[in-house]
Automatic annotation (TrEMBL), chain A:
<dbReference type="InterPro" id="IPR003439">
    <property type="entry name" value="ABC_transporter-like_ATP-bd"/>
</dbReference>
<dbReference type="Pfam" id="PF12399">
    <property type="entry name" value="BCA_ABC_TP_C"/>
</dbReference>
<keyword id="KW-0813">Transport</keyword>
<keyword id="KW-0547">Nucleotide-binding</keyword>
<protein>
    <submittedName>
        <fullName>ABC transporter ATP-binding protein</fullName>
    </submittedName>
</protein>
<dbReference type="InterPro" id="IPR027417">
    <property type="entry name" value="P-loop_NTPase"/>
</dbReference>
<dbReference type="InterPro" id="IPR051120">
    <property type="entry name" value="ABC_AA/LPS_Transport"/>
</dbReference>
Automatic annotation (TrEMBL), chain B:
<protein>
    <submittedName>
        <fullName>Branched-chain amino acid ABC transporter permease</fullName>
    </submittedName>
</protein>
<feature type="transmembrane region" description="Helical">
    <location>
        <begin position="59"/>
        <end position="78"/>
    </location>
</feature>
<feature type="transmembrane region" description="Helical">
    <location>
        <begin position="295"/>
        <end position="318"/>
    </location>
</feature>
<feature type="transmembrane region" description="Helical">
    <location>
        <begin position="258"/>
        <end position="283"/>
    </location>
</feature>
<keyword id="KW-1133">Transmembrane helix</keyword>
<feature type="transmembrane region" description="Helical">
    <location>
        <begin position="211"/>
        <end position="238"/>
    </location>
</feature>
<dbReference type="InterPro" id="IPR043428">
    <property type="entry name" value="LivM-like"/>
</dbReference>
UniProtKB/TrEMBL annotation, chain C:
<feature type="transmembrane region" description="Helical">
    <location>
        <begin position="142"/>
        <end position="162"/>
    </location>
</feature>
<feature type="transmembrane region" description="Helical">
    <location>
        <begin position="101"/>
        <end position="122"/>
    </location>
</feature>
<feature type="transmembrane region" description="Helical">
    <location>
        <begin position="274"/>
        <end position="296"/>
    </location>
</feature>
<keyword id="KW-1133">Transmembrane helix</keyword>
<comment type="similarity">
    <text>Belongs to the binding-protein-dependent transport system permease family. LivHM subfamily.</text>
</comment>
<keyword id="KW-0813">Transport</keyword>
<dbReference type="InterPro" id="IPR052157">
    <property type="entry name" value="BCAA_transport_permease"/>
</dbReference>
Amino acid sequence: MVEPVLEIRDLRKNFGALKVTDGVNLDLRPGEIHALIGPNGAGKSTLIHQISGSIRQDSGTIRFLGQDMAGLGMAARASLGLGRSFQISSLAPEFSALRNVMLAVQARQGPSFRFFRPVMADKSLTDPAMAMLERVGLAARSNLPAAELSHGERRQLEIAIALALGSKAFLFDEPMAGMGPEGSRSLTKFLGGLRREAPILLVEHDMDAVFALADRISVLVYGRIIASGKVDDIRNDPEVRRAYLGEAA
Amino acid sequence: MAAREPTVNTLLALLLMAVPLVALAIGEPFYITLATRIAILALAAVGLNIALGLGGLVSFGHAAFFGLGGYVAAILATHAFNGEPLFLGIPGTTSMPVIWFVAIAICALIALPIGAISLRTAGVYFIMITLAFAQMIYYFAISWPAYGGEDGLSLYVRNSLPLVNTAKPLPFFLVCYALLMLALALFWLIRGSRFGAALQAARQNATRLSAVGIAPFNINLAAFVMSAMMTGLAGALFADLNRFASPSMLSWHMSGELIVLIILGGKGRLFGPVAGAMLYVFFEYALGGITERWQFFLGLILLGVVLFARGGLLGLLAGKVQHG
Amino acid sequence: MSTALLIEQLLNGLQLGVMLFLMAAGLTLIFGVMGLINLAHGSLYMIGAFACAIVASATGSFWIGLIASLVAAAAAGAIMEVLVIRRLYERDHLDQVLATFALILIFSEGSRWLFGSFALYLDIPPLLQGAVPLPGGGQYQLYRLAVIGVGISVAVGLHVLISRTRLGMRIRAGESDREMIAALGIDIQTLYTVVFALGAALAGLAGALVGALQSVQVGMGEPVLILAFVVIVIGGIGSIKGALVGAILVGTIDTMGRFLLPKTLALILPASQAGMIGAALASMLIYIVMALILAFRPRGLFAA
């Protein structure tokens, strides 16, 4: 059995009386796409926040590449190789698409306490950043400020940033949200290939994409994983159908 | 549009240089003092612009560093003049380079804890806590009688620099002008550097910066300290210009004025503080010549700029900010 | 040190505290409801003091002056809100700081123009002249006690206003959800003007009350304003309860520090040095306390 890249054990988080994360166990293995689905308010985003370090869990452990993440902030986890995209695009709006990606390249190269060399003339930053934009198909828009990109382009830019970080695992929170059918299709294709670089924990509402992409699916309802397994098992699981798919259908 | 800002900047730099030369030619040395005042205030504001313009850190307490710089100059000079050692037998000095170094070092040492505590907060809390720290230093200065208390501290003669006669207005202006240009060069380098990229990203979206693995706190703290160091150097020069370090250099009005300089000129722009200081000193002089109550009109102008002309003077002259 | 002296100082601290509360309550209410930081709040304090001094000297009645201070400050506040402040709600804090800093310049220089740089004096009304005996000997000014009483009544009144009345319900709604109050059909623009005028009136009241203890002059609002900022930062911006606790804390710590620190230091240092160091430390004390509190609770004691 291969060692999982990301391993979550008995994770718990309460907001007041509400159990948003209620004893979650989850892992992400090399080369797979693990989809996390569930109805709105099931606690999917809160779980992503805890993994990436923007919210602290109450109890339980998160191990990434064998290392306990307790006490590490968001920045530290990101520099260990945990790349994420946000449910609502989170970019530096005044910076061009290229500069947004360059920031990730720069972070990967080491501390940012370098005060004199101009970044725009630094090929070790611009070249890899440009290459990432080409991979996600944004090269032609590289000079536009992030704020002026379309919704779908911003999602692509977030993925380019996660790629540029050299992430060893990706956390993607609803990357298809708000994309047209065309965009969803091309992004689905892209993510399908991406799993060879690093495994993906994918939160997504678009079931076509989930069924097309996922190697495994876990279903989160009211903070608990009620089912976890291969795509077909989940599709046919009666409890899942009742709690989730049944509602959606 | 993109090419206009460098032209405007060059013109501003030449204009500031021309004022004292013209003043000398027409025999009005007073204008040299005004130009020196502009250069020093601009230097202080360039410092603040690192934190405020690039990092979006609205420090309402930069007068603390401006005043500290001023008091360092006055205290060292007073000890040297009286021949009394400071402490542990260390003598005072009237040498400007030493004074600048000490002023910069002290500001860094004080800015570090102030920044470390203040940056745990954000938004309005940050504005108010920086204000409160500056008030703390202000009240300390006025209630500590050893260095003049409320009366401030005079310098008997202007401090000295090798090879330059600082007592004469023009050489002293040139020193201040050179330091201002150096500071602008530093600001320009920092803005374009990796550090500058991280700092500007921290202003635009701190979560994004964390998500690529750079902790905003460290970046902001470094920016705050550098910003304080530059403003402190300006304070030391200001005390030398007036031959006086006054508690008003530490007052919250001063902190407000430094922010005003940046906004009048254009926030986050390289020459914003220069344009702002020119406008401010011009208003002070021109309006002050007409009425004693010039600050009333300054208030009206400032209100107009904030409500209706948010790009400041450089926004007017050179268009919107360009990002690479 | 006698008990009476200690009680007197404690009462002085309390009196400073309730005055700060009157200022801080308005500031924190305006921030809580409208998200606005108002540096010109000190100008409203000054306007209250001037209105009281001028009307009291013209009519010979402190009480008419006191009413005038409320009316003048509320009116000034309402005008300020309609002409300037209203344009700032959607702006960032930097713009708010600058615009209200500009208002301070306008108000301060404007009143110097109108009233000159000389201080005006306001007498304590005959009804409240004299002193009351303190336990343990000594006496305390009746007027200061009355000021404490006014402060406590205002605190209670504000509590009732916010928790029991229709206006209070709207204010609470405004704090939690602006869109909801719009959905409820409440005219937000009027609500904001009313809240601003209410905060202004409290500041004006504080100015008038303090005016009889100190002189009335331009710039009198600024030290109080900064103390009030310290208060709301300690208490948690937006929280009236925080403003009350913070105000009493700041009032007592500041007063007791100035009283006790030099005496305490005198136990270990020569008297002249103890006085000097004690006074310098005391003047910094509340800022040190604030830094400590924020180091552990960055959003204040009662963060909203």
